User: Fold this.
Amino acid sequence: MRVLVVGGGITGGVLALALARDGAQVTVAELRSSLGGAGHGITLQGNALKAFHAVGIYEELAQHGFSFDKLRMFRADGVQLMEMPAPPMGGDAVPPTMGALRADLAGILARHVREAGVDVRLGTTATSLDDRGDHVVATLTDGTTETFDLVAGADGIRSAVRSMIGIEAKPQPVGMGIWRVVARRPEAMDSSGVYYGGPKFKAGYTPISGELCYAFLLEENLDRSFVGEHPNGKILKEHGQGYGGIWGQVRDSLADDAIVNYQYIEAILIDGPWHRGRVVVIGDAAHACPPLIAQGAAMCAEDAVVLAEMLAGGDPVDEVLPAFHARRYPRVKMVLDNSLQLAEWEIHPDTPGADPGRIMGQTLHALCAPA
Assistant:
């Protein structure tokens, strides 16, 4: 089988690696100049780690990340409200949760993809896809026209492949933005923590190595000039006033010119089929959820492993793709719906019946079921 994967991020990288390990001939078209990448930290639940274990990158990632088994919830002043054990979503082979640097994950995945013999085309993407029933003719920006048995659009929330195959779904704003920063890890930080009831929607952190942590702050959508990575440490410190505990320690440790990432939070879910003929979109191209349950990367990695597994079974592509959608849709919809409910409660914390701890616990326990 010849497969074109458009996009070389977490979704595309895991899919390419899984397919190559099963014997497929895989080409990755990545518009960026590198498969690796910098960026902030990431919280990886056990089901994400299970997917990474399935494609052989977990052990190396574990040498860099920080593993833990709980989530603590605090008042804004740092007084602990509750401690929630993290369920074993990935089974016995991996820890319940791990914090890591996105750059470490991207670098490890990129190297394994190349070592697996994947044909990586950097600075390249698809410009047209001609589905002829038993194959797809793809025209790429590097000037080549090639034939593939399957094309997978793993090109993110603003997927060009999604548009090419006539799926008109667009990402929608959630009504909040997120600040992210990497900082020194206080010694007392040994798990993720979230802070409620402060002047903004929510603050939190995750340890990502022995020395570093990843901290975030959720608030309203700010002016577009803040979007991206900028030396805005001073601004984040100002916006993060009113939070104590370990989060306050992390905030106060930031330099005024610390590099901080700010993004609007958006969501998308394609309600109907994720494929047209032999072209399918997966990961954030099909479903992207707010990062309030830390399941974005997990849903993407699961998509990739499950699709590769189903293709390896030998069934025809035109049978695999609808079966893949039927298998994945209920799970990703549950995560997306619950993430959006959390966002609504965090924007409107006085909503009667609001109970973030309950919905987070229910979601994580539900995800212990196989993907």
Observations:
- Residues 2-66+98-171+270-366 form a domain with the FAD/NAD(P)-binding domain fold (CATH 3.50.50.60).
- The two ends are 24 Å apart (CA to CA).
- The first helix runs from residue 10 to 21.
- The first strand starts at residue 2 and ends at 6.
